[in-house]
Write a structure and sequence with these properties.
The protein is of the alpha+beta class and 215 residues long. The chain is built from nine helices and seven strands; from the N terminus they run H-H-H-H-E-E-E-E-H-E-H-E-H-E-H-H.
């Protein structure tokens, strides 16, 4: 695992303050009871000191890591669409994200790069990381998450084009199974002008590549 991946994973484990606010779930002991059953099934004693509060901790953890299901997209945007006479590419780079693979419920994490060509309107800068966060904080596959980010931005802003590139490291392939700690995955979704114009698409990818080199 690279130093960047280790640092990113540490950030995931301390559960940084989420970028978006979700509706708070009610008191639900279902997850806690399930965790207790898992502890028993693997031969652990859920009554020992170190595990007494583990079911509750895990339940609260999943409440946070799946907060994206309970985010209101209208409240997320909060009217932050502005009339601006600008028609060049807008690119937000190096957006950290943390998600859970829906196949093994293990973390995958990395960075997203989101670009669009305005069509008379721009969206508030902070909203793009919040959109990424909304789709990351749920059970996901990277391919679908990439497309959902792009489609949401297209439907919300109606720009001339949207481009999304996501790079992720998947714990399900790093700590189990094939056990390849250096493997990473890249996914892209291109809509509108980015799909139709190879020059524009190349400019987007070149800026992403330049960002990586500057690290």
């Amino acid at each position: 695992m690279s130093n960047n991946q280790v640092e990113t994973m540490q950030n995931f484990l301390v559960f940084q303050e989420p970028l978006v606010e979700a509706e708070v779930r009610g008191d639900d002991t279902t997850i806690g009871n399930a965790v207790r059953d898992i502890l028993l099934s693997i031969g652990e004693n859920p009554e020992r000191q170190g595990l007494l509060k583990t079911p509750d901790r895990v339940a609260r953890m999943y409440d946070e890591l799946t907060a994206g299901y309970r985010i209101d997209p209208v409240k997320l945007i909060n009217g932050a669409l502005f009339d601006v006479d600008y028609s060049e590419m807008v690119l937000v780079k190096d957006i950290e994200f943390y998600s859970l693979c829906e196949h093994h419920m293990l973390p995958f994490f990395g960075r997203a790069y989101v670009a669009y060509i305005p069509n008379g309107k721009v969206i508030g800068l902070s909203k793009i990381p919040r959109i990424v966060e909304m789709f990351a904080r749920r059970l996901q596959v990277q391919e679908r998450m990439t497309a959902e980010i792009a489609n949401f931005l297209q439907e919300t802003l109606n720009p001339k084009g949207v481009a999304v590139l996501v790079e992720g490291a998947h714990m399900c392939a790093m700590m189990r199974g094939v056990k390849k700690s250096q493997a990473s995955m890249s996914t892209t979704t291109m809509l509108g002008a980015f799909k139709d114009d190879p020059v524009l698409r190349s400019e987007f990818l070149a800026q992403v590549t330049r960002s990586r080199r500057d690290e």
